[in-house]
Amino acid sequence: MNLLNTLKFLKIESKKQEKTINLIASENYSSLISILYSSSCLINKYTEGYPNQRYYSGCKFFDIIENKTILEAQNLFNSNYANVQSHSGSQANFSGIQSLINKNEKILSLDLKSGGHLTHGFIKNFSGKYFDVVNYLLDKNYSINKQYLYKIIKKEKPKVLILGYSSYQKYIDWGFFNYLSLKNNFFIISDISHISGLIASGLYPSPLIYSNLVTTTTHKTLRGIRGGLILTQNYKLIKKINLSVFPGQQGGCLANNVLGKFFSFKESNNINFLKYTKQIIINSKIMLKTFLYRGYESIDYNTENHMFIIKIKNINSFFLEKKLEKYGILINKNFIPNDKNKSLNPSGIRIGSSCITTRKIKKLGSELISNYICDLIKFNNNFIKIKIRLLCLVYPIYK
Ligand code: DSN
């Protein structure tokens, strides 16, 4: 494939993004400035090591950039220490776990079907292969049951408890788990990848003081460029984390992405971002309400964040995902807790409101989109395709 052909696909992809309503809860649209800076000449530079301790020469300007990015991350999350080098959330989790425990020691984490993540102990992931993993489940109300968790902790004596989830729409009582960890002597990793934007704005409680370390991606509700971040309040631990990221888990960091993160953190630390994240939660609540009104079931009557799960009955969620894509709507099929179905046809769909909120869609748009999905679950309607196109035209991603 020659260059022009490849660029053609890039153009098609960018048009497709503009013409599509994206409800994938783990995605968002970075600002053009973050995208621009993450595509800079820093791509050319190897920067193994940390500021003033590099393994290659010529890093003097990147040292300044990395230090400033660390500072921005610390300011944004009120954290004492930050490592901004992880290429992704998965790698941040690997490094985080590895900085706290040794191979074969025990992790306690929420199971994948209930909203956990692959890197929290899934059997085919590094976390499941190299550590001894015990899962906790949600109770019959799809909540984290404190008494049950307390019993599991007493029985299993984990070294690490992982909190923070990929499809959990309720509040997490970080303080309670901190209390348990102090009493029972285990570490806490809070993976806030999905909700870090809401936490940065102060709209969702921060786990920082209740966790040994916090990991996150930078591109979900935080709306930055793609990457990972690790935060901690502990001076001794940041040294271990740094060693665990480099050389423990990765080589030279993506210097260009570190600069992109700098802009992303700066952009998330102002009143406009606060307004944006408030609207994310409002839109998410409105959408859930619309689905419930139309007779669909979720795992709760409310959502406290940017997403929720809708149970899908009598219809294959794989085909529904494909069908909605044809109409210009992206969602993802998702497990529900205790799902009997397999991963290619789980019993739910996950809806997230970050992307539509970036388009400045508010109450009316959120209701319309939810109603379109409810209609499309039941029948076909080509007018909806046109309405989605119009909505995308009125609310562009990039003006
Ligand atoms: N798989 C992503 C999600 O959709 O939640 C997180 O890595």
UniProtKB/TrEMBL annotation:
Signal peptide (UniProt feature, chain positions): none
Ranges of residues in domain Serine hydroxymethyltransferase-like: 8-373
This protein's UniProt keywords: Methyltransferase, Pyridoxal phosphate, Transferase
Essential cofactor(s): pyridoxal 5'-phosphate
GO MF assignments: glycine hydroxymethyltransferase activity; methyltransferase activity; pyridoxal phosphate binding
Claim: RNA-binding is one of the keywords in the record: no
GO biological process: glycine biosynthetic process from serine; methylation; tetrahydrofolate interconversion
A Pfam family it matches: SHMT
GO CC, one annotated term: cytosol
UniProt xrefs under SUPFAM superfamilies: PLP-dependent transferases (SSF53383)
PTM-bearing positions, type N6-(pyridoxal phosphate)lysine: 220
Protein name as catalogued: Serine hydroxymethyltransferase
Organism: Candidatus Carsonella ruddii PC isolate NHV
